[in-house]
Design goal:
With 307 residues, the protein is an alpha/beta fold. The protein contains 13 helices and 9 strands.
């Protein structure tokens, strides 16, 4: 059975993830005009702004023959104007699907609990499933497989890190995570990933040493040190993350054919050097493009069938 909502990667079975990967690859290869979502409307409920998430979903929905409606921070007022419960029940009568970009993961969960239409997590403080699924697609494109590929994530144990942990554990990839003390990923996510890794053959490593994590890695991945809503912590975080920048020196510890990934936007000179961002190792723009193809696959799976 297809999932009703997509709030975290662990909502999916490995076979469902592989189905999404296959669908995304097919959509990328065959960019013909198709309209399986004709007459359907997707609501983009964004408590905080985004360039890539908004544009990729709007373009993807248009390419599938549907339309999208943006409901931004001004209308939502940070979720304070109306409860998620009420909003979900009302919008279920207008729309055919919702992408919720929220500060609190609990708000996305509450919306899904009361919604009669699919709810897709476009980013919350806990998870970023669309990003991680797109990343799996990109890695599979580059290596022809996921099982056994060696990934290293350097930086904050944040929402992107959580989703990468779940995705790697489900699909048999090896993931080493290096964070400063006090910035490790959520313990419940780590425990779930370790348990799932025993079934898939994945290997999960937690470290506080970037060089240890990237040793012989085929993929090195990082994200911003200070996410949206954490601006007051920026000065302290810069101190805490000293030594965690992905630069050419760090990449020398990785596999000779390593690729560098970043979910963007990047703070050049902080979590990643200009040299690495502009190097032959970086595939960040391929990675960004694949958000479009994967999200189209997600929309088709949750909101309709391909024709």
């Amino acid at each position: 059975m297809k999932p009703r909502h997509l709030l975290t990667v662990r909502d999916l079975k490995p076979s469902q993830i592989q189905g999404l990967l296959n669908s995304a690859a097919d959509l990328k290869r065959n960019r013909k005009e198709i309209d399986p979502l004709a007459g359907k409307t997707l609501g983009l409920l964004f408590q905080k702004p985004s360039v890539r998430t908004r544009v990729s979903f709007e373009v993807g929905m248009a390419q599938l023959g549907g339309r999208s409606l943006y409901i931004g921070p001004v209308e939502l007022q940070g979720g304070q104007r109306e409860s998620s419960k009420d909003l979900a029940q009302v919008l279920s009568r207008y729309l055919d699907g919702i992408v919720a970009r929220t500060f609190s993961h609990e708000q996305a969960e509450e919306m899904a609990a009361w919604s009669r239409i699919p709810v897709i997590n476009g980013l919350s403080d806990f998870a970023h499933p669309c990003q991680a699924l797109s990343d799996l697609f990109t890695i599979q494109e580059k290596f022809g497989r996921l099982k056994g590929v060696r990934l290293a994530y350097i930086g904050d144990g944040n929402n992107v890190c959580h989703s990468l942990l779940e995705a790697s554990a489900l699909m048999g990839a090896q993931l080493a995570v290096a964070t400063p003390p006090g910035y490790r990923p959520d313990r419940s996510v780590v425990q779930w990933a370790l348990a799932q890794a025993k079934k898939s053959g994945s290997r999960i490593l937690l470290s506080m040493k970037p060089k240890e994590a990237v040793r012989e890695a085929q993929v090195v991945y990082t994200d911003v040190w200070t996410s949206m809503g954490q601006e007051r912590e920026q000065a302290q975080r810069r101190k805490d993350f000293r030594g965690f920048q992905v630069d050419s020196s760090l990449l020398k510890q990785a596999d000779k054919k390593v690729i560098f990934m970043h979910c963007l936007p990047a703070h050049r000179g902080e979590e990643v050097s200009n040299e690495v961002m502009d190097s032959r190792y970086a595939i960040v723009y391929d990675q960004a493009e694949n958000r479009l193809h994967m999200q189209k696959a997600i929309l088709l799976t949750l909101m309709g069938r391909r024709t």
